[in-house]
Amino acid sequence: MSILIDLRIAAVGDIHLGEDVRGQYRRKLEGIEDRADVFMLAGDLTRHGTLEEGRVVADELRGLSIPVVAVLGNHDYHSDLQYEIAAELRDAGVIVLDDDGVVIQCGDKKLGVVGGKGFGGGYAGKCASEFGEREIKNFVSHTRYIAEAWKVALKEIVADHRVVLSHYSPIKETLEGEPPEIYPFLGSYLLAEAVDTAGADLILHGHAHKGSEKGMTPGGIRVRNVALPVLGRAYSVYCLNCEDEFHSHDSQRQAG
Ligand SMILES: [Fe+2]
Ligand SMILES: [Fe+2]
Question: What ligand has the least distance to the C-alpha of 78?
Fold first, then answer.
Protein backbone atom coordinates (compact mmCIF):
# COMPACT_ATOMS: atom_id res chain seq x y z
CA MET A 1 0.00 0.00 0.00
CA SER A 2 1.43 3.33 -0.96
CA ILE A 3 0.98 6.39 1.22
CA LEU A 4 0.05 9.56 -0.60
CA ILE A 5 2.21 12.41 0.59
CA ASP A 6 1.69 15.44 -1.54
CA LEU A 7 2.56 19.07 -1.37
CA ARG A 8 5.35 19.39 1.12
CA ILE A 9 5.96 23.01 2.06
CA ALA A 10 9.31 24.05 3.51
CA ALA A 11 8.86 27.26 5.47
CA VAL A 12 10.75 29.71 7.66
CA GLY A 13 10.53 33.35 8.64
CA ASP A 14 12.81 35.89 10.29
CA ILE A 15 16.09 34.70 8.83
CA HIS A 16 17.39 38.29 9.30
CA LEU A 17 20.41 37.93 7.02
CA GLY A 18 23.27 40.39 6.64
CA GLU A 19 26.59 40.66 4.83
CA ASP A 20 28.48 39.00 7.73
CA VAL A 21 26.61 35.70 7.25
CA ARG A 22 26.71 35.62 3.43
CA GLY A 23 26.68 32.01 2.17
CA GLN A 24 25.83 30.46 5.55
CA TYR A 25 22.07 30.15 5.12
CA ARG A 26 22.43 28.81 1.58
CA ARG A 27 24.48 25.89 2.91
CA LYS A 28 21.56 24.96 5.17
CA LEU A 29 19.27 24.75 2.15
CA GLU A 30 21.29 21.93 0.61
CA GLY A 31 18.95 19.08 -0.33
CA ILE A 32 15.76 21.09 0.27
CA GLU A 33 14.44 19.98 -3.12
CA ASP A 34 14.40 16.36 -1.86
CA ARG A 35 12.36 17.31 1.21
CA ALA A 36 9.87 19.82 -0.15
CA ASP A 37 8.00 20.89 -3.28
CA VAL A 38 8.06 24.60 -2.50
CA PHE A 39 9.92 26.93 -0.12
CA MET A 40 8.11 29.77 1.62
CA LEU A 41 9.64 32.68 3.54
CA ALA A 42 7.46 34.60 6.00
CA GLY A 43 9.24 37.96 6.05
CA ASP A 44 11.96 39.69 8.06
CA LEU A 45 14.52 38.42 5.62
CA THR A 46 16.88 41.30 6.45
CA ARG A 47 17.83 43.12 9.67
CA HIS A 48 17.35 46.77 8.74
CA GLY A 49 15.91 46.55 5.25
CA THR A 50 19.02 47.83 3.48
CA LEU A 51 19.63 47.04 -0.16
CA GLU A 52 22.91 45.33 0.75
CA GLU A 53 21.07 42.96 3.08
CA GLY A 54 18.38 42.43 0.45
CA ARG A 55 21.03 41.42 -2.05
CA VAL A 56 22.48 38.89 0.42
CA VAL A 57 19.02 37.34 0.78
CA ALA A 58 18.52 37.29 -2.99
CA ASP A 59 21.89 35.57 -3.50
CA GLU A 60 21.13 32.94 -0.82
CA LEU A 61 17.84 32.06 -2.55
CA ARG A 62 18.98 32.35 -6.17
CA GLY A 63 18.78 29.24 -8.36
CA LEU A 64 17.04 26.85 -5.97
CA SER A 65 15.42 24.06 -7.96
CA ILE A 66 12.01 24.36 -6.24
CA PRO A 67 9.74 27.42 -6.39
CA VAL A 68 10.46 30.02 -3.70
CA VAL A 69 7.66 32.29 -2.45
CA ALA A 70 8.28 35.14 0.01
CA VAL A 71 6.61 38.03 1.74
CA LEU A 72 8.48 40.89 3.38
CA GLY A 73 8.41 41.73 7.08
CA ASN A 74 8.51 44.98 9.06
CA HIS A 75 12.34 44.86 9.22
CA ASP A 76 12.45 44.74 5.41
CA TYR A 77 10.47 48.02 5.37
CA HIS A 78 12.74 49.82 7.85
CA SER A 79 14.86 51.70 5.27
CA ASP A 80 11.91 52.46 2.97
CA LEU A 81 13.51 50.20 0.36
CA GLN A 82 10.89 47.45 0.37
CA TYR A 83 10.15 47.78 -3.36
CA GLU A 84 13.85 47.69 -4.23
CA ILE A 85 14.39 44.63 -2.00
CA ALA A 86 11.39 42.90 -3.59
CA ALA A 87 12.85 43.67 -7.03
CA GLU A 88 16.21 42.12 -6.04
CA LEU A 89 14.38 39.00 -4.83
CA ARG A 90 12.31 38.78 -8.01
CA ASP A 91 15.50 39.10 -10.09
CA ALA A 92 16.76 36.06 -8.18
CA GLY A 93 13.66 34.09 -9.16
CA VAL A 94 11.71 34.51 -5.92
CA ILE A 95 7.94 35.08 -6.13
CA VAL A 96 7.25 38.01 -3.79
CA LEU A 97 3.64 38.42 -2.69
CA ASP A 98 2.28 41.85 -1.82
CA ASP A 99 -1.35 41.32 -0.81
CA ASP A 100 -1.96 39.18 -3.88
CA GLY A 101 -1.73 35.54 -4.90
CA VAL A 102 0.01 33.09 -7.17
CA VAL A 103 -0.71 29.56 -8.38
CA ILE A 104 2.23 27.17 -8.49
CA GLN A 105 2.14 23.84 -10.30
CA CYS A 106 3.54 21.17 -7.96
CA GLY A 107 3.52 17.87 -9.86
CA ASP A 108 -0.13 17.24 -10.72
CA LYS A 109 -1.41 19.64 -8.04
CA LYS A 110 -2.04 23.35 -8.21
CA LEU A 111 -0.99 25.21 -5.07
CA GLY A 112 -2.43 28.66 -4.53
CA VAL A 113 -0.48 30.99 -2.26
CA VAL A 114 -1.94 34.29 -1.05
CA GLY A 115 -0.35 36.78 1.29
CA GLY A 116 1.73 39.76 2.16
CA LYS A 117 3.31 41.39 5.17
CA GLY A 118 0.08 41.72 7.13
CA PHE A 119 -0.16 44.22 9.97
CA GLY A 120 -1.16 44.65 13.61
CA GLY A 121 -4.09 45.83 15.67
CA GLY A 122 -4.61 43.06 18.19
CA TYR A 123 -7.12 40.34 18.81
CA ALA A 124 -10.88 40.30 19.33
CA GLY A 125 -11.89 41.89 22.60
CA LYS A 126 -8.48 43.51 23.10
CA CYS A 127 -7.86 45.30 19.83
CA ALA A 128 -7.62 48.76 18.39
CA SER A 129 -10.74 49.98 16.59
CA GLU A 130 -11.47 52.58 13.94
CA PHE A 131 -12.50 55.24 16.44
CA GLY A 132 -11.12 58.57 17.57
CA GLU A 133 -7.90 60.01 16.21
CA ARG A 134 -7.13 59.83 12.51
CA GLU A 135 -3.84 58.02 13.30
CA ILE A 136 -5.65 55.15 15.06
CA LYS A 137 -8.22 54.95 12.28
CA ASN A 138 -5.40 54.76 9.71
CA PHE A 139 -3.65 52.03 11.70
CA VAL A 140 -6.71 49.79 11.88
CA SER A 141 -7.98 50.54 8.39
CA HIS A 142 -4.59 49.54 6.97
CA THR A 143 -5.00 46.06 8.47
CA ARG A 144 -8.63 45.92 7.31
CA TYR A 145 -7.55 46.83 3.76
CA ILE A 146 -4.93 44.05 3.76
CA ALA A 147 -7.38 41.47 5.14
CA GLU A 148 -9.90 42.37 2.45
CA ALA A 149 -7.26 42.04 -0.28
CA TRP A 150 -6.34 38.55 0.98
CA LYS A 151 -9.99 37.52 1.10
CA VAL A 152 -10.54 38.62 -2.50
CA ALA A 153 -7.33 36.92 -3.68
CA LEU A 154 -8.25 33.66 -1.90
CA LYS A 155 -11.71 33.65 -3.45
CA GLU A 156 -10.34 34.30 -6.94
CA ILE A 157 -7.65 31.65 -6.89
CA VAL A 158 -8.40 28.31 -8.54
CA ALA A 159 -6.19 25.62 -7.01
CA ASP A 160 -6.23 22.22 -5.29
CA HIS A 161 -4.82 23.72 -2.09
CA ARG A 162 -4.50 27.24 -0.73
CA VAL A 163 -1.88 28.51 1.70
CA VAL A 164 -1.67 31.98 3.24
CA LEU A 165 1.80 33.41 3.79
CA SER A 166 2.07 36.35 6.19
CA HIS A 167 4.60 38.04 8.43
CA TYR A 168 2.18 39.20 11.12
CA SER A 169 0.12 36.64 13.02
CA PRO A 170 -3.60 36.08 12.44
CA ILE A 171 -4.11 34.54 15.91
CA LYS A 172 -2.76 35.06 19.41
CA GLU A 173 -2.13 31.37 20.20
CA THR A 174 1.09 31.32 18.17
CA LEU A 175 2.28 34.41 20.07
CA GLU A 176 2.36 32.53 23.38
CA GLY A 177 5.75 33.29 24.93
CA GLU A 178 5.70 36.93 23.84
CA PRO A 179 4.67 39.64 26.35
CA PRO A 180 0.87 40.15 26.02
CA GLU A 181 1.46 43.92 26.02
CA ILE A 182 2.91 43.76 22.50
CA TYR A 183 0.32 41.43 20.94
CA PRO A 184 -1.37 44.34 19.08
CA PHE A 185 1.95 44.95 17.30
CA LEU A 186 2.37 41.30 16.37
CA GLY A 187 -0.80 40.74 14.39
CA SER A 188 -4.54 41.09 14.04
CA TYR A 189 -7.62 38.91 14.26
CA LEU A 190 -8.86 40.63 11.07
CA LEU A 191 -6.38 38.52 9.10
CA ALA A 192 -7.82 35.27 10.51
CA GLU A 193 -11.37 36.48 9.97
CA ALA A 194 -10.65 37.12 6.28
CA VAL A 195 -8.98 33.74 5.75
CA ASP A 196 -11.73 31.90 7.64
CA THR A 197 -14.31 33.54 5.37
CA ALA A 198 -12.52 32.68 2.12
CA GLY A 199 -11.00 29.34 3.20
CA ALA A 200 -7.44 27.98 3.14
CA ASP A 201 -5.56 24.84 4.15
CA LEU A 202 -2.75 26.44 6.14
CA ILE A 203 -1.53 29.84 7.35
CA LEU A 204 2.19 30.47 7.84
CA HIS A 205 3.55 33.51 9.65
CA GLY A 206 6.65 34.79 11.42
CA HIS A 207 7.43 37.99 13.41
CA ALA A 208 6.91 36.50 16.90
CA HIS A 209 10.43 35.25 17.67
CA LYS A 210 9.44 34.17 21.19
CA GLY A 211 6.06 32.75 20.19
CA SER A 212 4.83 29.19 19.73
CA GLU A 213 4.73 27.10 16.57
CA LYS A 214 1.20 25.73 16.45
CA GLY A 215 -2.27 27.21 16.56
CA MET A 216 -5.60 27.31 14.77
CA THR A 217 -7.98 30.02 13.59
CA PRO A 218 -11.50 30.18 15.05
CA GLY A 219 -12.63 28.60 11.75
CA GLY A 220 -10.30 25.61 12.20
CA ILE A 221 -7.46 26.49 9.80
CA ARG A 222 -4.00 25.35 10.89
CA VAL A 223 -1.62 28.21 11.73
CA ARG A 224 2.14 27.78 12.06
CA ASN A 225 4.58 30.36 13.38
CA VAL A 226 7.68 29.58 11.36
CA ALA A 227 9.96 32.28 12.79
CA LEU A 228 13.44 30.77 12.76
CA PRO A 229 14.00 31.21 16.52
CA VAL A 230 10.71 29.35 17.14
CA LEU A 231 11.59 26.47 14.79
CA GLY A 232 15.20 26.33 15.98
CA ARG A 233 16.21 25.09 12.54
CA ALA A 234 16.80 26.43 9.04
CA TYR A 235 13.22 25.53 8.03
CA SER A 236 10.45 23.06 8.78
CA VAL A 237 8.42 21.06 6.29
CA TYR A 238 4.63 20.93 6.47
CA CYS A 239 2.53 18.41 4.58
CA LEU A 240 -0.93 19.53 3.52
CA ASN A 241 -2.41 16.05 3.50
CA CYS A 242 -0.90 14.83 6.75
CA GLU A 243 -1.68 15.51 10.37
CA ASP A 244 1.97 15.21 11.27
CA GLU A 245 4.58 17.61 10.11
CA PHE A 246 8.06 16.77 9.04
CA HIS A 247 10.76 18.42 11.05
CA SER A 248 13.54 18.05 8.59
CA HIS A 249 17.04 19.32 8.98
CA ASP A 250 17.41 18.52 12.63
CA SER A 251 21.11 18.47 11.96
CA GLN A 252 20.82 22.20 11.35
CA ARG A 253 19.24 22.93 14.71
CA GLN A 254 20.26 26.28 16.04
CA ALA A 255 20.13 27.76 19.47
CA GLY A 256 17.59 30.55 20.07
FE1 LIG B 1 11.82 39.16 12.93
FE1 LIG C 1 8.97 41.23 12.29
Answer: 2
